[in-house]
Write a structure and sequence with these properties.
Elements (H helix, E strand, L loop, with lengths): L1 H18 L9 H8 L27 E5 L41 H8 L45 H19 L1 H10 L1 E5 L3 H7 L6 H4 L2 H20 L5 E5 L8 H6 L9 H24 L4 E5 L1 H10 L8 E5 L25 E3 L7 H13 L6 E2 L3 H8 L1
Parallel strand pairs: 1-2, 2-3, 3-4, 5-6
Antiparallel strand pairs: 4-7
Helix pairs in contact: 3-12, 4-5, 8-10, 11-12
Length: about 400
């Protein structure tokens, strides 16, 4: 392991020398990852299954279903041939099992905390199931790291389950419930459960900001945001057609503050990349307006929008209050802000992630996920969700 770390360090020195030359473009991150990462294997037999914590209360809803990207992937990518995997330490070192499960975090992700709030067990990964209804009845997580609203977003990383494919997987689950439980019981289960959607960031990281297929020449940021929102809108309507009524739609985080971009843009003193954050804020504005329209358009639906940008910026501005004294540097990685090379080994990680906002190049720590989950649940630290929070949604429909 020490030899591998030395090789990675030497590679960083070599690459930093190359990109420091005037006019030299940033070295492609996916190429760096391909060089220093082993060829991924679809096998996941060595990955421990998601544990089930003690449930403190009677469930407030029958189930929690999750669709999204690496912000909520709990292990689906462990079963895929992709470089976007978190099936190795130090990922998971502060999780309940202290082992990697496929979560892109040192510990829990937001839906873990929300499942407990709802009185449910941690939501298991869809691809980790054996097809038996007993393992799905309290929810499934379809999220796949690298996935975006656009089908091809993140494809350079390898296999992933796209947003549209995740919606189809959810539809297949619904059909399986009908066959196993009966149609009315399946309708009751789905209509009273919560669907949590967290997706869209890869459409910027791996598509728009990289100008794939000259997309920036075809779409100004505002037009691109409208395109993404309209696509998401249609999928929510498709889900509504199979009796999905309670939906939490998460906005995008301020990726202009992520260590990867602080390193790439060579920002001074940890200042965020405003041009990236401005685009993200525009997307969240479009999404919030779209959700307001959908609430009026779809009878009996209860769809809420949670602005992760607002919640995250509040954490950054009040970092000392939360005991987070490292606001720009990732806990795990290499290079400036530890955002130049991805988190690969325990030697690359800090000793105490609870003091950091960022765990790796793009993903927050368990500490931040806990705060964001509190905000989604009841706005404990700052108001994030509109027109109501998740606790109010559950109470409203009970």
């Amino acid at each position: 392991m020490a030899i591998n770390l030395l090789l990675v360090t030497l590679l960083c020195i070599l690459i930093s020398t190359v990109v420091s030359q005037p006019g030299s473009p940033p070295f492609p991150q996916e190429l760096i990852n391909a060089i220093i990462s082993p060829t991924p294997s679809p096998s996941s037999s060595s990955i421990p299954s998601t544990p089930t914590p003690s449930i403190p209360q009677t469930p407030l809803v029958p189930a929690l279903f999750v669709i999204g990207d690496s912000s909520v992937d709990c292990g689906n990518n462990n079963f895929l041939g992709t470089f976007a995997r978190a099936d190795h330490l130090p990922y998971g070192r502060d999780f309940d099992t202290h082992q990697p499960t496929g979560r892109f975090c040192n510990g829990r992700i937001p839906v873990d905390y929300l499942a407990l709030r709802l009185g449910l067990p941690f939501v298991p990964s869809y691809l980790g199931q054996n097809g038996r209804v007993e393992g799905m009845i309290q929810g499934l997580n379809y999220a796949s790291a690298g996935a975006g609203i656009i089908f091809t977003s993140g494809s350079e990383l390898g296999q992933h389950v796209s947003f549209t494919q995740q919606v189809q997987q959810f539809t297949d689950t619904y059909q399986q419930f009908i066959l196993s439980l009966g149609e009315q019981a399946a309708i009751d289960l789905i209509s009273n459960s919560v669907l949590y959607i967290s997706i869209g960031i890869n459409d910027y990281i791996h598509y728009y900001l990289r100008n794939v297929s000259n997309v920036q020449n075809l779409y100004l940021p505002w037009s691109f945001n409208q395109f993404l929102a309209s696509t998401l809108r249609q999928e929510i309507k498709n889900l509504y057609s199979i009796n999905v009524m309670k939906v939490v739609v998460m906005g995008l985080a301020p990726i202009g503050c992520a260590p990867h971009y602080l390193s790439q843009y060579r920002m001074k003193d940890g200042q965020c990349v405003e041009e990236i954050n401005d685009t993200v804020m525009e997307f969240n504005f479009v999404m919030r307006y779209m959700i307001e329209e959908l609430r009026e358009e779809l009878p009996d639906s209860n769809i809420i929008f949670c602005d992760v940008f607002e919640g995250s910026m509040d954490i950054i501005k009040n970092s000392e209050h939360h005991g987070l004294n490292a606001t720009a540097d990732a806990c795990c990685g290499l290079g400036e802000y530890k955002g130049f090379v991805m988190c690969l080994s325990p030697e690359m990680a800090c000793s105490n992630a609870s003091h950091h906002i960022w765990w790796d190049q793009f993903h927050p720590t368990d500490a931040v996920n806990a705060i964001l989950a509190d905000n989604v649940w009841n706005g404990l630290h700052t108001k994030m969700c509109y027109p109501m929070n998740l606790e109010e949604m559950v109470a409203f429909d009970s």
